[in-house]
């Protein structure tokens, strides 16, 4: 009896990356009130039953379907399913990093230049159909970092190697993103932020008490709406936690507006989705079953989609 692509290591990691993304967004949306700076929010009053599939997840699933149908490519004019999913969402400055997860799922990490170009191109196609300004250079570099991190994690590389790949991709994306629309953040800031946050953690990992890793990273900066800060925050946190559930919880807490900035927009859903996707691919068994069970409307999509994505790698 032969195993299916879902049963293979890459297939399991692809599935866990998608489930981690979905659970991260759902948890980030459920925990919508300010929390203490510990980065470890309390359980939503409704528990896992209160989790719902979010609009960013629906868009990523639609994009993954389109990429699978196009044998790894997507037309400059996105399919109806993608534009319909865009119509039901309100993408923010961090959302392009979530779209880049799809590029990481279908590409191996060995050809860095191809991976970066594919991730940036995919983001630009989606952004072209979205009611948002074109992604700035830093947003494209952050997207490249996410694509590389997910790609390396799906390939079975360890946390430090995953961050190395992300940093290399962010640096390589500077040339690709140079012709993009301007912004206040330079593309090179993403690679610098990854290095800075890794030094800030100084090798600390899962042995730290719950909430401590996010608190240490927040001592350097708050993960706001700037891609060069928020995306590296999510990636470094995911690699350090060693567990998707913990990474999602810490990212969700860190991304909520606190007392110091009560009017700030919460970045918890995107931050937790990014952390969950990378941490899920690194440790597939660590995505909480209670959370995936609450989002079981995605199960059939996952069953059909994961083998198609695994085949493209």
UniProtKB/TrEMBL annotation:
Q: Which InterPro entries match?
A: Ribosyl_crysJ1_sf
The source's superkingdom equals Bacteria
Recall the GO molecular function terms of this protein's record. hydrolase activity
- Descriptive protein name: ADP-ribosylglycohydrolase
């Amino acid at each position: 009896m032969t195993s299916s692509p879902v049963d293979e290591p890459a297939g399991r990691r692809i599935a866990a990356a998608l489930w981690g993304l979905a659970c991260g967004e759902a948890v980030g949306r459920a925990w919508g009130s300010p929390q203490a700076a510990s980065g470890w929010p309390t359980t939503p009053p409704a528990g896992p039953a209160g989790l719902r599939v979010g609009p960013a997840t629906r868009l990523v699933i639609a994009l993954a379907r389109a990429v699978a149908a196009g044998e790894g490519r997507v037309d400059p004019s996105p399919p109806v399913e993608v534009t319909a999913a865009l119509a039901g969402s309100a993408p923010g400055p961090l959302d392009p990093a979530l779209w880049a997860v799809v590029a990481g799922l279908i590409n191996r990490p060995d050809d860095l230049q191809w991976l970066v170009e594919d991730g940036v191109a995919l983001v630009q196609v989606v952004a072209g159909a979205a009611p948002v300004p074109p992604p700035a250079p830093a947003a494209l570099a952050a997207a490249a970092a996410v694509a590389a991190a997910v790609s390396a994690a799906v390939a079975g590389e360890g946390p430090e190697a995953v961050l190395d790949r992300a940093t290399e991709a962010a640096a390589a994306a500077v040339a690709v993103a140079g012709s993009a629309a301007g912004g206040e953040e330079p593309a090179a800031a993403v690679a610098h932020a990854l290095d800075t946050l890794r030094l800030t953690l100084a090798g600390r990992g899962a042995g730290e008490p719950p909430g401590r890793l996010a608190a240490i990273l927040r001592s350097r900066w708050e993960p706001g709406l700037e891609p060069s800060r928020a995306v590296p925050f999510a990636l470094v946190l995911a690699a350090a936690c060693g567990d998707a559930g913990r990474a999602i919880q810490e990212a969700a807490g860190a991304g909520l507006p606190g007392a110091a900035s009560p009017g700030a927009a919460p970045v918890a859903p995107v931050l937790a989705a990014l952390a969950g996707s990378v941490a899920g691919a690194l440790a597939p068994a660590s995505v909480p079953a209670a959370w995936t069970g609450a989002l079981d409307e995605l199960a059939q999509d996952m069953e059909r989609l994961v083998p198609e994505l695994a085949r493209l790698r």
